[in-house]
Design brief:
Ubiquitin-like (UB roll); DNA polymerase, domain 1; five-stranded mixed sheet; globular; 2Fe-2S; iron-sulfur; Beta-grasp_dom_sf; metal ion binding; 2 iron, 2 sulfur cluster binding
C-alpha cells in the first residue's frame, strides 16, 4: 500500500491490523505523534488526514491509503516553523512536550474546521469570526489532554495563531 505522508508517497507492506500511529512511529520513524493512551482519549497521537484531525491510534493505516497525512514533522517548511508551531514557542505553550505534537496538529485542524463553519458546543453552525474566544478554543481543543496543565499558554498560542494562518 502507499501512504502519502507529509507530501511524500511511502510504499509499505503492513499487516491489515496495523494502526496509522504504529505505521508512522514504527515503520516510517516519524515519532512526533505519541502513543499516550492507545484508546483515543488523550489526543497525543493527533495527525491531520486531508486537513482534518484524527487520532492515529484509532484508525488502521490501510484506511488512509490515498489520503494526505500530515504529521507534526510535516507542518514546518524547511527551517521555517508553521505559524501554530511558532505560536506554541512564543507563548511557551508546553512543559514536558509529550502532548505538544498532538496539541499543535489538533489546533491546526481545529482552526480549519472553525474557518469552514463547523459547529462547536459554544457556537452553532455558520460563519465563525476569528480570532476565537478562549471558551471556544478550550471546547474545540477538549480532546487533547496535557498532563502538565499548560492549558492557559496553549489557549494563548492558539488564539494568537488564529490571525496568522495557523490553520491548514
Amino acid at each position: 500500500m502507499t501512504l502519502h505522508v507529509n507530501g511524500k508517497p511511502c510504499t509499505l507492506q503492513l499487516e491489515p491490523r496495523c494502526t496509522l500511529l504504529d505505521a508512522l512511529r514504527e515503520i516510517l520513524q516519524l515519532t512526533g505523534a505519541k502513543k499516550g493512551c492507545d484508546r483515543g482519549q488523550c489526543g497525543a497521537c493527533t495527525v491531520l488526514v486531508d486537513g482534518r484531525r484524527i487520532n492515529a491510534c484509532l484508525t488502521l493505516a490501510v484506511m488512509q491509503e490515498g489520503r494526505q497525512i500530515t504529521t507534526i514533522e510535516g507542518l514546518a517548511s524547511g527551517d521555517t516553523l508553521h505559524p501554530m508551531q511558532q505560536a506554541f514557542v512564543t507563548h511557551d505553550a508546553l512543559q514536558c512536550g509529550f502532548c505538544t505534537p498532538g496539541q499543535i496538529c489538533s489546533a491546526v485542524g481545529m482552526l480549519a474546521e472553525a474557518r469552514a463553519g463547523h459547529a462547536s458546543a459554544v457556537r452553532p453552525l455558520g460563519p465563525v469570526t476569528l480570532p476565537l474566544g478562549d471558551d471556544e478554543i478550550r471546547e474545540r481543543m477538549s480532546g487533547n489532554l496535557c498532563r502538565c496543565g499548560a492549558y492557559p499558554n496553549i489557549v494563548a498560542a492558539v488564539r494568537s495563531a488564529c490571525g496568522t494562518g495557523g490553520g491548514t
